[in-house]
From TrEMBL:
Official protein name in the record: DNA mismatch repair protein MutS
Chain's role: This protein is involved in the repair of mismatches in DNA. It is possible that it carries out the mismatch recognition step. This protein has a weak ATPase activity.
Protein's GO biological process: mismatch repair
Keywords linked to the UniProt accession: ATP-binding, DNA damage, DNA repair, DNA-binding, Nucleotide-binding
PROSITE patterns the UniProt entry points to: DNA_MISMATCH_REPAIR_2
Single Gene Ontology MF annotation: ATP binding
A cellular-component GO term for this protein: cytosol
Binding site for ATP: 611-618
Residues covered by the DNA mismatch repair proteins mutS family domain: 685-701
Coiled coil stretches, renumbered: none
Similarity section: Belongs to the DNA mismatch repair MutS family.
SMART domains with a match to the protein in the record: MUTSac, MUTSd
PANTHER family: DNA MISMATCH REPAIR PROTEIN MSH1, MITOCHONDRIAL (PTHR11361:SF34), DNA MISMATCH REPAIR PROTEIN MUTS FAMILY MEMBER (PTHR11361)
Organism listed in the record: Akkermansia glycaniphila
Amino acid sequence: MAAQDSSLSPMMDQYLRMKQGLPEDVWLFFRLGDFYEMFFEDAVEASAVLGLTLTKRHTVPMCGVPFHSVEGYIGQAVKAGKRVAIAEQKGTPVPGKLVERELVQVVSAGTLADLALLNEAEHNYIVAVFREKSAWGLACVDHTTGEFSVAEFGSQEALAEEVSRVAPRELLVSDEQRDSFPLLRPTLFYDGYAFLPGAAVPVLEAHFQVHSLEGFGCAGLRAALGAAGAVLHYLKHQLRRSTEHLRKLALRPTEGVVLIDAASQRNLDLVDARGGAKFSLLGALDGTSSPMGARKLRDWVLHPVADVDVLRGRQDAVERFLGEPFLMSKLRDSLKGVRDLERLSSKLAQGAGNARDLMALGCSLGQVPAVEADLYVLAEGCPKLGDLCGRLGDFAGLVELLAGALADEPPVTIKEGGMIRDGYSAELDELRLASRDGKAWLAEMEARERAATGIDSLKIRFNNVFGYYIEVTRANYAKVPEHYHRKQTLANAERFVTEELKRMEGTILGADERSRQLEYELFCALREEVKGFLDAIQVSADALAEADVLLAFAESAQRHGYCRPELDCSRNLSIVNGRHPVIEQVQQGVPFVPNDSLMDEEGNRVLILTGPNMAGKSTYIRQVALIVLMAQIGSFVPAESARIGVVDRIFCRVGASDDLARGQSTFMVEMSETAMILNNATERSLVILDEIGRGTATFDGLSIAWAVAEHLHDELGSRTLFATHYHELVDLVHTHPAVSNWHVEVREWKDEIVFLRKVLPGPADKSYGIQVARLAGMPESIVSRAKEILTHLEMSSTRREPKARKRQKPGMPVAREAEVTQLELLWDEEE
Ligand code: ADP
Ligand code: MG
C-alpha cells in the first residue's frame, strides 16, 4: 500500500482510510459512478485474477468492474480465495463535492449472498473451531439458511472428521491457537479474543436474548461456545452481516451418529465419485425435488444413525408412502412447487432480496396446506409423518397477504415500481390513477393540438432529459403557433413545450415518483412482515425437507425394487440377493448379478474374499457397506431381503489409492488410513478392506495384510470384509475361528475366462491373472511366455507347500505354532 500522501485527492484519501481498516487479504471494491474500482496492489492483483485491464489514475494503478456485473466478479474473486469488501456511495453525487462512501459488507466464501452463485444442493458453512482443555469445540453457521449449530469432541481426530463431513467454505481458527490444529486446514486466523468462552457466552446470550444457553442444551460446552461466539463476531463485525436470522443454537448430534471418516467417505463414493456425482451413492438416491431436500439427504448420507427406533420411524414413513401411490405422486407435485424456503426467508429477513423472492416465498408457503393434507391422511399410525405434519405450520395469513400485495410478474429491481398489485394500497392506487389520467390527458392534448395547428404528424413524447415535449417535423415549422417554446432542434424536427404541458408534466412525474417511493416502502414493510415468520418458516422448511427425502426413498424403492431391511442390535448381517445401488443403475447393457451376504459373530465375522482381477470383489464388499449405510439412513435397500445388526462406524480402505493432493506417497496414505481403523474400530463397526498392502513389495504387503486381518479378528471383533489378491490369506481360516473364505466365481472356457459375478463359499482356486491379461489385449507371445513362467513358479512353490500345510488341521482353534509356520514359509521364500 502506498503511503498516505497529502498530494492525493480527497477521494483517494477516503479510499486509503477505508482500505487500511480491512484485513490484508480483502480487496476493496470502491464504488465510483457505474463502476467498482480497485487501486494500488488490489488493482494489480485483481486485474490478473479477474482478467481486467489495468490502467492508471494519475500515477496510481487502477482497474474496475461495471456495477451491473459485479456479482460474477465477486464470485470469481472468492473462488480464487479472496474476500471482497464493497464500498457504496451514499446519497446522490454533487459535482465538485466528495461523495460520502460506506463500507456495506465483506463478501467471503461463506457469505456469497447471491443464490445464483451457490450450489443449491449443498450447505454453505462457515466453521470455527476452538480448543479448551481436553475439549475440541466446533461451531457451524450456514448464513444463507440461518442454521447455527455446535458440537464438542474428545479428540482432534473426531473434530477433524466432522469438519471434513461439513466441508466448510471457510474455517476459522483463533490466532492464539495457530498451531493447535495440525489436522485441519484453516482459511483464516481470527481475533483470539472473540473465541474466549468468557467473552463469547455473554455475546451469545445477548444475541439470542436469553439469560442462559441452558435452553439450547449447550450451556456447559465452553469450547464449542467459544467457537460459536467467534463465528458470530466474524459475521457481524468483519463481514458486516445481519445475523438476526440466526435464531437458535442447535446441538449437532454426535451420539448415535454413525461416524464415517473422510477417507471412507471418499472410498465409498458417498457424495462424490471419480466420474462425477452421478456415480455416487447420493447420485443414485437423489430424487428430491427441493434444494432443502437435497441438502437434507446429503446430511443424512454423511451422518447415518445407529438408533434403531429412529430408523424404524423413517422406514414406517417410507412404507406408508409406498402403500399410497396416488398420494405419493400428489405429494411430489406439491413439493415441486416449493422453492428454497430456508435461503429465501433468510435473505429476506436480512433486508435483502427483491419482490420476486417474496413472491417465491409466498408461492412456496402456499404449497404447505396441500402437503399437510396429504401427510395427514398418511400420518395415522405413523408417528414420523404425524410429527412432520405438526411442524409444517400455518402460513395462510402471510400467503394471502403476499398474494394480495404482489403484482403477477414483479421486476427484479425494487426501486422502479411495478411490484405492488392494484387494490392493495388506496394511496398507491390514487397516485397511479393520477399518472394514468395524466397520460390519457396527454393523448387528448395531442389530438387537440393536431386539430388546432393542422399538423397531423405532431407528437407528444417523453425523454429523461427534457421531460414531455411536442415534436414537429421540419416540413411543418410554419404552422407552429406563438405560444410554443422551442426546446431542442434536431436534424429533421423541432421540439417544443407549452405552459400547459409543463404543468401537466409536474403532476404526472410527481405522481410517478411518489408512487415508486411508496411501492418501495410497501415492499420493505412486506419484507419486514416475513421476519416475524422466520422461526416458523425455518421449522416448516426442515419438515418439508424431511418429507422430500422420505418420499424420495419411497420412489427409489419403487423404481429400483428395494426392500425394507429389518434392523436389530445384534452383530449379524444377512442380505439375500443384494445389489450395488450405484453400479446396478449406471452399468449399461449388462444385468447386475445379485449376491447374498452372511456375517455373524461365530464363523463369519471376518470374510476373506478372493478371486481374479475384475471378478467383482471390490463391487461386492462396497455393496455390503452401502446397503448397511442405506439401511442406517432409513432408506430401503437393493436386495430381496435384509436383516442388519446396526453398526457404529463404517470404515472403507482401498490399497494404494492415490492421494496426490495431500502430497503423501500412496503407500503412506494407505498405511495411515489403515492405522486409523485399527485405532478406532469397535466390535460394532463394519470394516471394508480392499487390497490392503498392495502398495509395497509383495511380502511386505502380504505380511501387513495378514497382521491387520489377525488384529481385526482377535482384538477388535469388527465385522470385516477383506478383498485380497494375496491368496495366502485364505489359510487364516485354519487358525482363526471367525474367519471364513469366499470367492467370486469364474469359469474357464477354452482357455478364456468367464466372469460369473457370483460370490460363493470357499477360496478361489487360482488367480487367472494371465487370462485377464489376455482379455485386456496383451500380445499372445507375452501371454504364452507368462504361462510358462507361471507353471515353473507353481511347481517350485508346491514343492515347499507341504511343509507349511502339514501342521495345520482345518477348523482347529487358533494355534500359534501354525501361524509361525505359515509366516516362515513366506520368509524363506523371500530369502
Ligand atoms: P475386482 O475388484 O474383483 O477386480 P470389480 O469389483 O472392480 O472387480 O469389478 C469389475 C467390474 O465387474 C465392475 O466394474 C463391474 O462393471 C462388474 N461387476 C462387478 N460385480 C458385478 C455384478 N455383481 N454384476 C454385474 N457386473 C458386475
Ligand atoms: Mg478390486
